[in-house]
Design brief:
There is one protein chain. It is globular and about 65 Å long. α5 (90-97) packs antiparallel against α6. The protein is 68% helix and 0% strand. The protein is an all-alpha fold and 472 residues long. It has helices at 10-15, 28-39, 42-55, 59-83, 90-97, 100-135, 142-145, 157-172, 174-199, 225-236, 240-243, 252-281, 293-300, 304-317, 319-338, 356-372, 375-403, 416-431, 436-460. The chain has a single domain (3-16, 29-464), classed as Up-down Bundle (Amino acid/polyamine transporter I), CATH 1.20.1740. It is found in: Membrane. The chain crosses the membrane at residues 31-52, 58-78, 90-111, 153-173, 180-200, 220-239, 260-286, 306-328, 349-372, 378-402, 414-434, 440-456. InterPro entries: AA/rel_permease1 (IPR002293).
Length: 472
């Protein structure tokens, strides 16, 4: 069998005869909280200012556009995840539909996405935490507060610390960590709802004029609605982490669709409401350069206590993003290890029903990145890996609908040709709206991945030594 055409059997996923199984402990509320916890994070808390600076009040259109692309991707994920309830997310769907080589590229891109998101959020959390401690009279020495990219810096210890805490939560067990995640999500959502409630009475429609000062823009254009949407896209993804929990869902045929689509609906409505309120309550120029735009708006309105609560909720609840993506990263590693594309010892399950070895391995990897690298370097490449994964899911949806139209689909994406095409085209356009440096490093990462695949993974793949009923 040619390595580029090797495919795993969809039917074999349901039998789960290879590797140890994960415990089914999650219901749809846990999955929706996992998705909302991953989606609502540094994006809405910080990127609304960046987006407003690029698009002006038309940042509302940027949120809507990014939300539309992600909504289509979410529908594609919902259909494929209920058909293939196995850890691995877009990597697994690509393996079953598009073949091993394509799946490897997608999996390699997912490693990039999840690793960089976890590291970037940890570095962002560190900034909040250092400021919070400073306000209490505790000043960390610079060599422990930032990486070597800053003069006098050595390691970002707070970032490493929060990754270690979240890893410990995951090792306690999936259900336990999911329950704590749900509590922290409520805290985070309450802060955004409070912002809207307090800022809305100060709404001034004059702040929306001119509405689109920098135009609509497009690929390779650095300002405008499209440029803002390409950045704000970072604020929406995270629902794909739900798909990595497929094996741990009590009723995957129902729970996965509710969790994925439900979290996107909740977050899209919340984002547009917060963005509209922010623009209406303050001129864009007053908060576009702030690293904490929502808190700044509250302070400018004389609501210092509310501003403090928003800042505190970020410190308390941002670890939900870390938890969701560290969870997803470990499950992608698990899926690739089961398939032999990574060392199979990573697929071992602990007595608590979690992939302990791969979780610890993932934590060490992202801790090194968070401890030593800059936030902007981490965040920019994360988008590229996500766009690759989303585009592959849109393509897999279309191919499988055409190739196997009669297969049972517990959840069917409506208008599937539109959903698939919009997902693919949107991701391509957003990719070419990223900085050229980001595109270059993404290419280098995947060239390295192809070398690893050809040198080791191709020969150690389970499909290189077929297991009965495992190959398609």
């Amino acid at each position: 069998m040619n390595f580029w055409s090797r495919k795993i059997s969809i039917d074999a996923m349901h039998e789960n005869k290879h590797g140890e199984g994960l415990r089914k402990t999650l219901s749809w509320p846990h999955l929706m909280a996992l998705g909302v916890g991953a989606i609502v994070g540094t994006g809405i808390l910080t990127l609304i200012g960046v987006g407003a600076g690029l698009a002006g009040p038309a940042v509302l259109l940027s949120f809507a556009l990014a939300g539309l692309i992600c909504a289509c991707a979410a529908l594609a994920y919902a259909e494929l995840s209920t058909m293939m309830p196995a850890a691995g997310s877009a990597y697994t769907y690509s393996y079953a539909v598009l073949g091993e080589l394509f799946a490897w590229i997608v999996g390699w891109s997912l490693i990039l996405e999840y690793s960089l998101v976890v590291s970037a959020v940890a570095v962002g959390w560190s900034g909040y935490a250092v400021g919070f401690l400073s306000g209490m009279g505790i000043d960390l020495p610079i060599w422990l507060a930032v990486g070597p990219h800053v003069e006098g810096g050595l390691i970002n210890l707070p970032a490493v610390f929060i990754i270690a805490i979240v890893t410990g939560m995951l090792l306690l067990g999936t259900r336990e960590s999911a329950t704590l995640n749900a509590i922290l999500v409520v805290i985070k959502i309450s802060a955004l709802v409070l912002f809207v409630a307090v800022a809305l009475p100060n709404f001034d429609s004059a702040n929306f004029t001119p509405f689109m000062p920098h135009g609509f823009g497009g690929p390779l254009v650095q300002t405008g609605v499209m440029a803002a949407a390409a950045i704000i896209f970072f604020a929406f993804y995270g629902f794909d982490a739900i798909a990595t929990a497929a094996e741990e869902a009590k009723d995957p045929k129902r729970d996965l669709a509710i969790g994925i689509v439900g979290s996107m609906v909740v977050c899209t409505a919340l984002y547009i409401g917060v963005a509209a309120t922010a623009v209406g309550a303050a001129p864009v120029a007053s908060f576009s350069d702030s690293p904490e735009p929502l808190a700044l708006i509250m302070r400018n309105l004389g609501q210092g206590a509310v501003a403090q609560w928003i800042a505190a909720s970020a410190v308390i609840a941002l670890p939900t993003v870390l938890l969701a993506f560290l969870f997803g990263q470990s499950r992608v590693f698990l899926g690739m290890a089961r398939d032999g594309l990574l060392p199979t010892r990573l697929a071992r399950i602990s007595s608590r029903g979690v992939p302990a070895i791969v979780t610890i391995f993932t934590a060490v990897l992202v801790s090194v990145l968070a401890g030593l690298m800059r936030l902007d370097e981490l965040a920019s490449l994360a988008n590229a890996g996500t766009l690759m994964a989303f585009a592959s899911v849109g393509l897999a949806l279309i191919v499988l609908r055409i190739r196997d139209p009669k297969r049972d689909r517990p959840f069917k994406a409506p208008l599937w040709p539109v959903v698939g095409v919009v997902t693919i085209l949107g991701c391509v356009i957003f990719f070419f709206s990223l900085q050229h440096r980001t595109q270059f490093w993404f290419l280098i990462w995947n060239v390295l991945g192809i070398v690893v695949y050809l040198a080791w993974s191709m020969r150690n793949s389970r499909l290189a030594k077929p297991v009965p009923n495992f190959a398609a």
